[in-house]
Amino acid sequence: MKSRSFFLTLLFGNLLILISCSSNNKNNSVEKNVLGNKIDTAKKQDKSVSPSDSCKYYLRLSQELDSVLLKSTQFDEKLAIKANNTFVKCAFECHHDSISALYLLKAAQLSQSLNKLELSEKYLTKILSDYPNTPFKPAAKFLLAQYYADVKLLNKPSKAKELFNQIIKEYPKSIWAENAAAALQWVGKSDEEILKELKKKK
Questions:
Q1: What is the C-alpha separation between 114 and 128, in angstroms, rounded?
Q2: How far is the CA of 2 from the CAs of 35, 110, 116, 176, in angstroms?
Q3: CB distance 86 to 65 below 8 Å
Q4: Which label site among 27, 97, 112, 147 has the fewest CB atoms less than 10 Å from its CB?
Q5: Running along the chain, 202 residues long, what does each successive block of 10 average in pLDDT?
């Protein structure tokens, strides 16, 4: 995927179910071609999907897209856009299901990679407001806080500090609280400033 800022890579690491990983390029190409055919067919059938089946329909497409993304070794903008739209549709159609929050989270990550930070903020905020009991809430809150904290992204340091402190208070013995506490010292600082301070501590 497109490179994330040093700040995000440093603090978020592998805490989320990230939407990129490594695998075999040949298998990946075959899967993308097969998936492309499935989605083209699905588009033609889209209007015929009944409301009662729409959640299962978009969930299946989302799972297939997610599988391809997880095996991708390079960023594919067209695939990312297609997946992002499908994830959002899945979240909308399955809004009564707990899986909705997961696909909003994935859509938020993809939106950031596509430089659509306003959409990423919108999806993460929706998770926090509409799914207060989802197990993905701390992940959504932490990711949103990082976007606010990064000067190259949303750059809203006061909101970042507020969210990080909420995480520490709400999940005191979790890895989220531990990382939020570490993240507070970097809020509002550029990658260069972070690197300089890290070098001083060595």
A1: 22
A2: 22, 10, 13, 25
A3: yes
A4: 27
A5: 42 42 39 46 51 85 94 92 96 92 96 94 96 94 94 91 97 95 88 83 72
Report how far apart, in Å, the C-alpha atoms of 195 and of each of 166, 180, 202 are: 26, 18, 11
pLDDT at 28: 46
- Cα torsion 132, 138, 143, 148 to 10°: value is 70
Could you tell me if 183 and 9 are in contact, meaning their C-beta atoms sit under 8 angstroms apart?
A: no
The first and second tokens of residue 91, run together, are: 């979240």
Question: For position 47, what pLDDT does the model report?
Answer: 52
How many residues are recorded in the chain? 202
